[in-house]
Structures are given as C-alpha cells and as structure tokens.
C-alpha cells in the first residue's frame, strides 16, 4: 500500500538543499502537469530545459519499456547496442569522432576538464594546467565544476577549491585574452549562459576564443548542457556561430527526462583517455541510451528544429505584448526556447516572486538568478499551450504589479 505524502514531508525527510514549489506534480501529458489536487499547470519550465519532448511522450515510453523488458544494466565491463547506436547518432550529427557517456551535465563537464588536463600533461608537460572560465557561468555541482563556474555563491563554502582556475568576464574578449597563455590547458564556455541570466555569446567573442586556444594550444570546451539538443533552434548552439569546439558537453534534453550526459570530442583529444583513465558505473547504460536515441531521432529533424524557431517568435511576440501592458522587463533575450526576461531595476530581486505567482495561476516558469524570469519549455509545445500559458502569466504579472504598487 502506497504511503500518503505531502509537500510538508519534504521539509521533514529531505536534505534542505532545495526549496521546491508548494505543490507536488503527479501526472503529465505534453506540456501540461497535474498536482495531487488535480490542478492543471502549463509547463514553461521544462524540467530546467530537460523535457524537450514534454511529458509522457509515446516514443520515449516505447523506447523505455521495450528496453526495460530486455535488460537494464551490466556495468562498463560490457557494451550494449543502444549506446553504440546513440554514439553513432551523435557522431554523424556533430563534429565529434568519439563519445564518452555519463549520467549528468556535471559529469560531462568534469570529464571534459579532466581530458583537457590529461591532454596538456601528456603533450606539453604538467606545468600546462591552467583553466580559464567565465564569471556567472554554471558548469555543475562537483567540486571541480563548481570551481569552474564563476559564481562564488555556489563554491565559497567548499574551499579549498581546485587550483589554477581563473575567471574572465563573459563576452569581454580583452578580459579573456589577459588570462589565456601558454600555460592554459583549457577554456570552458557556454555559448549562451543559462543559469547566469540567459546571456548569448557575441559571435566575435567565441571566434576569438577559438583563435586564442589555437594560438596557445589550449582545449576549447563548449558547455552545451542547457543549450544542446535543439534548445536554440539548431541541434547544438555552436552551429549558430560557425565556431567548432574541441570538446562539447551535452546532457539535460539528451535524455528528455531520463538521466544521461555525454562528452563529445575528436580522435586527437580522445586518444589520451586510455583504459582506466576515467569511468562511470551507470554511464551509457542501455535504458538511458535507448531513451536518448529515441529523443535524439525525433529532435534532429528539420521539422522540430524549425519549429523551435517558430515557437521562439510566439514567445517573444506575446512577451512583448504583455510587457507593453505590464512594463516589468528591461529586456527579453535568448535563442530558440531558452528565453530570459530581465526585470527592470525597480523590481530587482523579485523574479522568484513572479514565478510563485505564476504557479498560483497554473503556470510553471523558471528563474535565472534573482532578476531574470526564464522560459525553457518543450521544443514541441503546442500553440494552444503557449497561448494558455501566457494568459496565466499575464494574470501573474498583473497581480505582481498590483502588489508592489498598492
């Protein structure tokens, strides 16, 4: 018999590293969710850019249940058919020649940073170990990746941190140029900062980072955990820019909700990672790989990728109309279906309040820091779901403004 649970049980039983919403979702379909009381929500959060095909997509259910009826796990002493097929899909669709599978974006970035240091040590010597990252970046929660992320609030309580990591200003090439030198083994950058406020990179910035890495024999790592697998309207965001990294991390939408991550690279860099250099127990297991293969097949189509561009227009047009009526935002920015609304100075720090009001009206949204309301819905969200969601968002904006002006 299933035990009855409530939101209050979270505070009683769970380590308090999250502050989840007041409701508990129990069922989803498409871009709609229902809570324990049967209340409906439109999902503009997408599991933080994870649920690229929405909830309970038939193709994902089919892939998961078919593989579940065969076998689930063997460990890395054996390979399996789903993971090999998924590797070939990624290689055929990108610059990559080799893939390493893991369980999350943090693990993919951890592997990327380890590869960069190993490559530099093997080819140039142990003195070449510097890593250049960027302020306001987010690369994960392991000690290595939280150190690379340029947000002290996430790392300062865990000192001493791994050494030889410096942070330049994002989109400021002079700041980066001042730090990148012959002792730099890697530069890690998000083509669009997600947690840092939904800030796209300037094309010239990424192009010059590529040139600096070539000049100083540094590995250029693109963190596409949030921007990858169709989120921006291209399969990966690097394809917008015409700048090819040496290593790319991908996760989140890759599994559509089933945990999986991957590091993509070329033969040149993969060659230093030999048997025993790195590993993971669950990475590339057949369940995750089968689901990810189905997700990738559906997203890597002209129909879905062009549909993301169309949906971006639906979002920005409606946000512009809402902002004209309820002037809350200084800027609406982003690419594809990763969109951030930057609050005006007089409403600074209130993004969470707006997201909570939206939930009361039956809409799930995200924040990206205290000043940005973020949207990362399913890539195939319907026009009706977009319209209904924004009707609810408009009510939340009206309530917010009435509250701060009354």
Structural overview:
With 406 residues, the protein is α/β, with parallel strands linked by helices. It has two domains: 7-56 and 302-405, Aspartate Aminotransferase, domain 1 (Alpha-Beta Complex), CATH 3.90.1150.10; 71-299, Aspartate Aminotransferase, domain 2, CATH 3.40.640.10. It is 40% helix and 18% strand. It contains 15 helices and 17 strands. It has a seven-stranded mixed β-sheet, with helices on both faces. A hairpin with a 4-residue loop joins β16 and β17. The mean pLDDT is 96.
What are the salient characteristics of this protein?
single chain, 406 residues, alpha/beta, Aspartate Aminotransferase, domain 1, Aspartate Aminotransferase, domain 2, 2 domains, seven-stranded mixed β-sheet, four-stranded mixed β-sheet, 15 helices
């Amino acid at each position: 018999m299933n035990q009855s649970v409530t939101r209050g049980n979270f505070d009683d039983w769970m380590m308090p590293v999250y502050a989840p919403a007041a409701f508990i979702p129990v069922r989803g379909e498409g871009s709609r969710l229902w809570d324990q009381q049967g209340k409906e929500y439109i999902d503009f959060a997408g599991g933080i850019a994870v649920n690229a095909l929405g909830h309970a997509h038939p193709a994902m259910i089919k892939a998961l249940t078919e593989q579940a009826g065969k076998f689930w796990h063997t460990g890395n002493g054996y390979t399996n058919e789903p993971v090999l097929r998924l590797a070939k899909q990624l290689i055929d669709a990108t610059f990559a020649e080799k893939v390493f599978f893991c369980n999350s974006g943090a693990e993919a970035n951890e592997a990327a940073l380890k590869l960069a240091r190993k490559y530099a040590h093997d080819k140039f010597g142990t003195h070449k170990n510097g890593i250049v990252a960027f302020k306001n970046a987010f690369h994960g929660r392991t000690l290595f990746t939280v150190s690379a992320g340029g947000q002290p609030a996430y790392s300062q309580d865990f000192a001493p941190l791994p050494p030889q990591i410096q942070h330049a200003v994002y989109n400021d090439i002079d700041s980066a140029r001042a730090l990148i030198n012959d002792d730099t083994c890697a530069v890690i950058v998000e083509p669009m900062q997600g947690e840092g406020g939904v800030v796209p990179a300037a094309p010239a910035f990424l192009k010059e980072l590529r040139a600096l890495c070539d000049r100083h024999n540094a590995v250029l790592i693109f963190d596409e955990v949030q921007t990858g697998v169709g989120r921006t309207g291209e399969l990966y965001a690097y394809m917008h820019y015409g700048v090819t990294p040496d290593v790319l991390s991908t996760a989140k939408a890759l599994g559509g909700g089933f945990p999986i991550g991957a590091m993509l690279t070329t033969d040149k860099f993969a060659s230093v990672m030999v048997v025993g250099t790195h590993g993971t127990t669950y990475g590339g297991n057949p369940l995750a790989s089968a689901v990810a293969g189905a997700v990738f097949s559906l997203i890597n189509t002209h129909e879905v990728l062009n549909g993301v561009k169309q949906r971006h227009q639906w979002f920005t047009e409606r946000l512009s109309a809402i902002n004209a009526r309820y002037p809350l935002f200084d800027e609406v920015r982003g690419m594809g279906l990763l969109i951030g609304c930057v609050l005006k100075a007089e409403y600074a720090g209130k993004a969470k309040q707006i997201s909570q009001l939206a939930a009361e009206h039956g809409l799930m949204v995200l924040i990206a820091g205290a000043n940005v309301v973020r949207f990362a819905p399913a890539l195939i969200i319907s026009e009706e779901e977009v319209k209904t969601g924004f009707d609810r968002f408009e009510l939340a904006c009206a309530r917010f403004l009435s509250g701060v002006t009354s």
